[in-house]
Amino acid sequence: MKKLILLLVLPLFAAIQLNAQTTPPAAKANPNAPVAKWDKLVNDFGSIAFNVPKTAEFTLTNAGKEPLIINSAKASCGCTNLKYAQAPIQAGQSATVSATYNAATPGLFVKTITVVTNADPNPVVLQIKGTVLPNPNAAPAPAPAAKPAPAVAPK
C-alpha cells in the first residue's frame, strides 16, 4: 500500500516542480516607445585653466514615436552643475544636457552624470574628464628641508 501511494504521489510532485520552473512569456515591446539616442557619452576637456568653469553639452534625440521624458539627471559631485530639459522631448526632436565643471581643484578629474529616462529602465552614464592646470597665483610649495648629517659618535 505504501508503495502504491508513493508511486502516485511522486509523479504528481515531479509535475508540480517542472511546471514551477517555466518562465512566463516576455511582454511585447512597445513599437512606439521613445528611443534615446545620445550624440556622445564622454566629453574630454583636455587641459583647462584653474578656476575657469567649463561646460560640456550632450545632445539627446528621441528616435522613437512617443515623447521622451528625462526623469532625473544627477552629477557625481557638487562640483558639477546640470541643466536639462524638463519638458517631454517629442518624436524626432532633441534636447541638451549641459554639465558645467567648476575647475576649482588642480589635477586630473573624471565626473559622471547619471540620466534616467522613460526610454530604458537602465540609466545612461555620461562622463566629463580632463586636467585642471595648477593655480598660477599659488605660492610655490616649500622645498623639502635638507636632512642633517648623522652625528658621528666619538671613539
Looking at this protein, list some descriptive labels.
4-stranded antiparallel sheet, 4-stranded mixed sheet, 8 strands, about 160 residues, flat, mainly beta, 1 helix, Immunoglobulin-like
Please tell me about this protein's structure.
The protein is mostly beta strands and 155 residues long. It has a domain at 36-132: Immunoglobulins (Immunoglobulin-like, Sandwich). It has one helix at 2-20; strands spanning 36-38, 42-48, 54-62, 70-75, 80-83, 94-101, 107-117, 120-132. Strand 7 (107-117) and strand 8 form a beta hairpin. The chain is flat and about 105 Å long.
Strand order in the sheet with the most strands: 1-3-6-5
Radius of gyration: 30 Å
Q: Could you say what the CATH topology of the domain at 36-132 is called?
A: Immunoglobulin-like
CATH architecture of the domain at 36-132: Sandwich
How would you characterize the largest beta sheet? 4 strands, antiparallel
> Care to count the β-strands?
8
Mean pLDDT over the full residue set: 87
N-C termini distance:
105 Å
Shape: flat
Helix percentage = 10-25%
- Please tally the helical runs, counting DSSP H or I stretches of 4 or more residues: 1
Helix/strand/pairing class, anyone?
Answer: mainly beta
CATH homologous superfamily grouping of the domain at 36-132: Immunoglobulins
> Which spans of ≥5 residues are poorly predicted at pLDDT below 50?
none
CATH class of the domain at 36-132: Mainly Beta
Q: How would you spell out the order of helices and strands?
A: HEEEEEEEE
How much beta, percentage-wise? 35-45%
